[in-house]
Amino acid sequence: MSHLVSVAQLIHLQRAEEHGTGPAVRLLDVRWRLDRPEGRPEYLAAHLPGAVYVDLEHELARRGEPAEGRHPLPETDDLQRAARGWGLDDGDTVVAYDDNRSVPAARLWWLLRRFGVDVRVLDGGIRAWAGEGMPLERGDVLPDPGGITFAGDAAGVILLDQVEAFRDRGVLLDARTPEQYSGAQTATDPVGGHIPGAVNLPAMATVTGDGRLQHPDALRRIFATAGVDAGTEVAVYCGSGVASMHTVLALEQSGIRALVYPGSWSQWSNTRGQPVAVGILPDGRLTKV
Q: Where are the transmembrane segments (predicted)?
């Protein structure tokens, strides 16, 4: 099953719901970016009709210590409570979108699908919708509370103390920019560089100029340059665990299963004694946090 929907496919799903031949379709607006983490003003100004705003910082992450990273995963009960607040019920089809090349929407996709939710990402986001001449609405949408119940085992992660063993058997992808990977740019982290042995493949390498994900054939070629194919064990990290989930979306859209290291560099670089590689090569010049 594709993890994406196009504008035309979303309209088809909505019409099936209207005619009683398909499940309820719930739209979730996950607008967020590093330089403007509060996306509600943009949401209130214009959003897809019926879409409910999702606050990534407070609903798709939890407040934690620096040693946990900047965006620790939310507790399951808290995420389920938030999902009910978005009006979700069991059996709904959820479509998430944003205005940032589907990066924040992919975090919602990754979190919900772990619990058996039928969740997709609108390819191209709100810009693709508006570009097709489809209507937008203003203001807030306050749905009736839903009754969704999460199922599943919340798998799909590796933790800090599992990263070293994983590197010995699979490919660890670093989805940050080359400048962050090499250590030339430290951003908000205490040290720059990357996890030794990690291969750099920026998340935006999988996206076209209009914000859509590359075709699966192109994605497979892109991942092959990093030594990843359908038979490879692969895990992904980024700065704080958001962009890495977009890379997992791209991997799974191309038929490759992947894990996420959710603490990512923001956890690794805040944990004293962890090895750090500096430079453009996977093993680089070694130092420690």
A: none
